[in-house]
Design brief:
- It is a single chain.
- The chain has about 240 residues and is of the alpha/beta class.
- The chain has a single domain, classed as Ribonuclease Z/Hydroxyacylglutathione hydrolase-like (Metallo-beta-lactamase, Chain A, 4-Layer Sandwich), CATH 3.60.15.
- It is about 25% helix and about 30% strand.
- It has a 7-stranded mixed sheet. A 7-stranded mixed sheet has the order 9-10-11-12-13-14-15, covered by helices on one side.
- The chain is globular.
- The model has no long low-confidence stretch (mean pLDDT about 95).
Length: about 240
């Protein structure tokens, strides 16, 4: 399994793209979160919408989901196919009515100008996450766990190709969540201010855990060079291998 780092910044970044990534295994590619402008974000890693098989959304804050309308429209109008859209039911409940519906609920025929109503399932194959069990999408087995954040938000554990990745999503510091993520071979954890996880808390974790962790969602002025935990770098590719022992 490989991780392609696409964006590492927060909602207010002027330096990076907002945090998102692609996971690759067995010829399939899964996008984690979808900020705008997603095609430019993908282009930084020489990818495009047609290279994606599915997208998983952790929560409905704009820096994680604002590119989804463009992603689905590109698939609909240009690629003439549906993407698989994965999210927890609480995220899905708000995703259409609270975010996408205003711009996507009605399309007109370019010749007749007749209007046609649409719903989310017209644009995407919808797969709900389940907190009680992993959900299989292609080669990926996705487990989820609720985080501590302003809106319903779900961390992920993704297993494929014999390896596993933990993805914290946005969250306040949560020792239980870190223990859950640490069951994976490698883990990606956010760090920021407010209802997020302070870097100092992560830096105080045991060294063996820090060595398996990458940072994302960091501030523009975060000192990446002196961090005791490796920050992900945009456009870089990382191999995730099973732990030995």
């Amino acid at each position: 399994m490989e991780l392609v780092s696409l964006g590492v910044g927060d909602a207010f970044t002027a330096r990076y793209w907002s945090t998102c990534a692609a996971v690759e295994a067995e010829g399939s590619r899964l996008l984690i979160d979808c900020p705008h402008p997603i095609r430019r974000v993908l282009a930084g890693a020489s990818l495009d919408v047609g290279d994606l098989d599915a997208v998983v959304i952790t929560h409905n804050h704009a820096d994680h989901v604002s590119g989804l309308e463009g992603l689905l429209f590109f698939s609909w109008f240009v690629l003439r196919r549906k993407l698989t859209l994965i999210a927890h039911p609480e995220v899905l409940d708000d995703l259409w009515h609270g975010h996408l519906r205003a711009g996507m609920c009605r399309l007109i025929d370019p010749v007749t100008h007749a209007g046609h109503d649409h719903v989310l399932s017209d644009y995407a194959e919808i797969v709900p996450l389940d907190e009680s069990r992993p959900v299989q999408v292609g080669p990926f087995a996705l487990s989820c766990r609720r985080t501590i954040h302003h809106v319903p938000t779900f961390a992920l554990r993704i297993e494929a190709g014999g390896a596993s990745l933990g993805w914290s999503a946005d969250t306040a510091y949560d020792e239980g969540l870190i223990a859950w993520l640490a069951e994976a071979d490698r883990l990606v954890h956010e760090t920021n201010l407010g209802a997020h996880t302070p870097y100092e808390k992560l830096a105080a974790l045991p060294e063996d855990l820090r060595q398996r962790m990458w940072l994302v969602h960091y501030l523009d002025h975060f000192d990446t060079e002196s961090s005791v935990i490796e920050p992900l770098r945009e456009g870089e590719r990382y191999v995730i291998e099973p732990r030995v022992g």
